[in-house]
Write a structure and sequence with these properties.
Blueprint: H1 2-9, H2 11-27, H3 47-87, H4 93-96, H5 98-130, H6 138-169, H7 175-196, H8 198-201, E1 204-206, H9 211-223, E2 229-233, E3 244-247, E4 254-258, H10 259-264, H11 267-282, H12 285-303, H13 308-334, H14 337-350, H15 359-364, H16 371-394
Parallel strand pairs: 2-4
Antiparallel strand pairs: 1-2, 3-4
């Protein structure tokens, strides 16, 4: 009997996994990727550089995965305890004030997950400090952890209160409005984060007039997108790594460049990075992510934490496809495969990346293609455009 109940309890997980797979297949970009050429990473990196990246990145990945397993285990244990208490008919303050009780439970679960992962986060940070990737002091890091934890507690408390209210009002179909609320909240956070949350952790300043700003705006026009303002962020207060991103929705949309990117890379290299990020705007990849969330939220609400890991793995596959298309657009828009290759090499060394991870890692875990594959795409683009140029020269005018 118990076994039959367990098997029946698995159907939401199976449904959620099936919906996640269907969402990936529906939303995956088609026909825009560049088939990468086979490249030997040793042509672009020394053996010592490849080994250094693997020695750092692979244990960091193991720590991150272990942290997720630990957090999910503690959340699952908390859910079981709550279910047992409900089944035994326990009453108390939370029974008399259900929404407030839900807020307390949501905040407690978020706090438990944060505290559970804190030792492993500290270990990962210690390793980052040892290799010079992290620049932030321990007190400043703890302050950021506290800020992030407080924000998560507030959001979790709101989600807990809303979930309890919905389950009381719609006992059988609560998961439908809950999933709609999750999508709406994600969209609201996407629009408001650049102006409300991001400044809590970093300083942003408009990029002054000059060649880089002109390049960004020119590339945006060529991509047919409006990016609003262009900002520089003081990423160097935390890391020596380099990056750029486009954030916000509607009037809060903006291009953000790490100060470490502007300090270290030349104009052509910055152009290929910006072109990649603009591809995400051009192809509405934020809305694609929201569509994925909308498709998996209803069954995921039924399966709760049990489906978080498989849904995340399937979502990573969609992310890699989106990033490959963005790389292809970056190469098409900039027309600079050499700058693309030199940037991928330099940023992999700067960020101490695993340039050629094991197949299971690149298939299941990573959200971006590995460096070796991205260089291979640039090599294939260079060979294709070179052949096309040679063909044009042979055709008489």
């Amino acid at each position: 009997m118990k076994r039959a109940r367990r098997l029946r309890g698995l159907w939401p997980v199976v449904l959620a996994a099936a919906c996640s797979e269907a969402a990936v297949r529906i939303l995956k970009p088609r026909g825009a990727e560049i088939t990468p050429a086979e490249v030997d990473p040793r042509r672009y990196f020394t053996v010592a550089e490849i080994e250094r990246g693997a020695r750092f990145a692979r244990p960091q990945l193991a720590i991150a995965l272990l942290g997720q397993v630990l957090q999910l285990s503690m959340l699952a244990a908390a859910v079981r305890r709550l279910a047992r208490g409900s089944a035994r008919g326990r009453r108390g303050w939370s029974a008399d004030h259900p929404a407030a009780g839900g807020a307390v439970v949501g905040a407690a679960m978020a706090g438990t997950a944060t505290l559970a992962g804190l030792p492993l986060s500290a270990l990962a940070r210690k390793r980052s400090l040892a290799v010079g990737l992290s620049t932030q002091s321990w007190p400043a890091w703890l302050l950021d952890v506290t800020k992030a934890g407080a924000i998560e507690l507030g959001l979790a408390a709101g989600a807990g209160a809303a979930t309890v209210s919905l389950t009381r009002r719609y006992p059988r179909h609560w998961w439908l409005p809950a999933s709609a609320g999750a999508v709406g909240t994600a969209a609201a956070l996407g629009a408001l984060a650049p102006v409300l949350l991001d400044p809590v952790f970093n300083r942003f300043k408009p990029l002054p007039a000059g060649p880089v700003r002109s390049d960004v705006l020119m590339l945006a026009r060529a991509s047919g997108v409006n990016v609003g303002e262009v900002y520089e962020v003081d990423a160097s207060r935390r890391t020596t790594g380099a990056n750029a991103y486009v954030t916000g929705l509607g009037p809060t949309k903006r291009v953000v460049l790490f100060d470490t990117l502007l300090q270290r890379y030349d104009r052509d290299q910055v152009r290929v990075v910006v072109a990649h990020e603009l591809a995400h705007v051009r192809n509405r990849d934020v809305w694609r992510s929201l569509a994925y969330l909308a498709m998996i939220s209803p069954p995921a609400a039924l399966a709760a934490a049990l489906v978080a890991a498989p849904a995340g793995l399937l979502g990573s596959r969609l992310s890699r496809a989106v990033e490959r298309r963005a790389d292809a657009w970056s190469l098409e828009l900039s027309g600079a495969p050499e700058a693309f290759i030199s940037f991928q090499r330099a940023v992999a060394l700067q960020n101490i990346a695993d340039v050629d991870p094991p197949r299971w890692v690149r298939t299941l875990v990573t959200t971006h293609p590995p460096t070796s594959e991205r260089i291979g795409a640039a090599v294939a683009f260079r060979e294709r455009t070179g052949a096309e140029a040679a063909l044009r020269e042979q055709v008489p005018a």
